[in-house]
Request: fold
Amino acid sequence: MTSLNKELVFPILQFLEEERFTESVHKMVKLTMIARVTDGLPLAEGLDDGRDIRDVEFYKQQVKALFKNLSRGQNEPSRMSVETGPYIFHYIIEGRVCYLTMCDRAYPKKLAFQYLEDLKNEFERVNGAQIETAARPYAFIKFDTFIQKTKKLYQDTQTQRNISKLNDELYEVHQIMTRNVQEVLGVGEKLDQVSQMSSRLTSESRIYADKARDLNRQALIRKWAPVAIVLGVVFLLFWVKNKLW
Reply:
């Protein structure tokens, strides 16, 4: 290759490589959060996640709402994808812990779930014995180091490593359900409404029962009060008569 050709070709190749990397970064993992399913307690999350996302707090609130739904004991699948705006949540539940990530919709589903599997395996290995006894939020925040290191491995979808994972026929994600976030959270809201209605009806039933008992007492008083008065007067007259005689 001549010097002139090198000067022309190398910048083009460099530009294409930068474009490929930029595209892969655009599709990468955006948020990662780990929580205990039994009570929704957040255990760890990626501290550097979400800096390039507008309204990142909005999506974090959605994640917390999802964890809250799961803590209610709803019969949700152990693996599911949930669409939200331009992004998609993927989560897996293992050992009463939920591992969740948010990606661009264009990011390969298979890579997202393999990323979560890597996090799950390491988190169980390092913190498994302490999960049930954790009492404060983000008790395992140091796990962020592993999150960031693993996320970098999955950042570029075109690396040989990730291409091999995409071609792994033993790991299938076609059966994993995909739902809309409004649908998923709406179920929780409806359950809340049912729970509130049930509590209100129970409270109203107690009030009604108390009122019914009061009315019964008042009815008994009205029914037997005249008899009691007559008997009292008769007893009084009998007592006075005995005293006078």
User: Anything to note?
Assistant: Confidence is low (pLDDT under 50) at residues 8-13, 15-26, 188-202. Residues 114 and 165 are 8 Å apart (CA to CA). Residues 181-244 form the longest helix (64 residues).
